[in-house]
Design goal:
binds adenosine-5'-diphosphate; 2 domains; Rossmann fold; eight-stranded mixed beta sheet; alpha/beta; single chain; binds magnesium ion
Length: about 425
Amino acid sequence: MNPLTFVILSTGLDTLKELRGALAANEDTRLLVGGDDPEQLFPEIVRLRPNAAIITLGAHPEHDLKFVARLAAECPTTAIICASRDASPDMILRSLRAGAKDFLRLPIIKGEFETVLERTAEFCAAQVEAPKKRGRVVAVFSSKGGCGTSFIATNIAASLPSRTVLVDLNLQAGDLALFLGVDPKFSISDLVENRARVDDSLLKSYLAPYSTNLSLMAAPREADLADDIEPEHIFEVLEVLRERFDYVVIDPQHTFDSITLAALDQADEIVLVLSIDIPAIRSTQRALAIFDRLGYPRHKVRIVVNRWSKQIDLDLRQVERFLGQPVTAFIQSDYLTTVNSINLGQPLVESDPSSRIAAEIRRIAATISGEAPAASIAEPRKGLMNSFFRRQPTGDPNFNLRARIGKEKAPAAI
Ligand SMILES: Nc1ncnc2c1ncn2[C@@H]1O[C@H](COP(=O)(O)OP(=O)(O)O)[C@@H](O)[C@H]1O
Ligand SMILES: [Mg+2]
């Protein structure tokens, strides 16, 4: 058997020596490179593609976890092992959320180290055996209800070009079945209950088909069925779904509960929806600050303004500055058009494909699927912006967005 290849990142010299020693004592491992500078080591790891990378968490674990998240995104076949003297459940959870496959307590306990090595070997064997299909998970999220996330999630799902499942994670009161005009017989609680024995045909029976490309994984019919669903079930269910679908579009709740966090953690992309009103802007700013703390890279988040109108008397540039990130899409406000499509039980991209809202949602979907370059909407569109600013060329000098929204520090810009 080929030895498992390792790299080590550790800012503490003693820890580096300790880890080196432990690896050297095991003949089935080979250390390729060890160092203390993440920026130097990152390109080395990308080039060498080791089986595993041990990353020690130092005095500022948030920096180290950001590095872990970056590495996990760039090198998914490298097993990342976080090592720390702080082995609290919180630190372990944060490590796993950032993308670590395992956690090693320091100082090293021999038996534990061997278990970690065994698990790393299993992980590496699985990488070689069958590279599993990994559909793209897209969460359409707003930390405030009523911004139109269910509407947008449904329409993005209906616009994606290949096999897509829309997952209703409003477990207590999900209503996506109405948005699609389907009558599901089963729900996510059935999938959770039978997840250990799920195969293609069982999974198919739990889904409500809408079209050749689109199916719905509905929320439970009875709210109390949701009580038995735990965050780890959501992890497993999303894994099952992404192995079988090209896109998994999630409509989570508007709170940072553990189910929502499990879904957001697993999302490759978060479409963060807001409307241009002060409570929604403040709520979005808080959501971004939470994403930062969770170590989500900012490129995972696309900000989408819904119910946009050039009549809204607010300086968009101030909003973007406050959020620390540009808005990537503007969906027009048109209550009648949206509500008619919802009442019809048909996504607007089908019931009124030539509408401006449908066109903008198709553009968002095309950037998700890679059919359109992200830049085409990442660029704030000048036509819209100019017309907006023409209305208030200098802005209201007495108007200070941050003062009105609160004293929180705006999250760092990307
Ligand atoms: N672009 C829009 N313009 C006008 N009304 C909209 C728009 N998008 C959504 N709505 C309306 O907002 C309401 C809430 O939408 P919904 O998708 O249920 O929000 P959420 O899931 O965020 O709570 C619906 O009545 C819908 O018709
Ligand atoms: Mg909703």
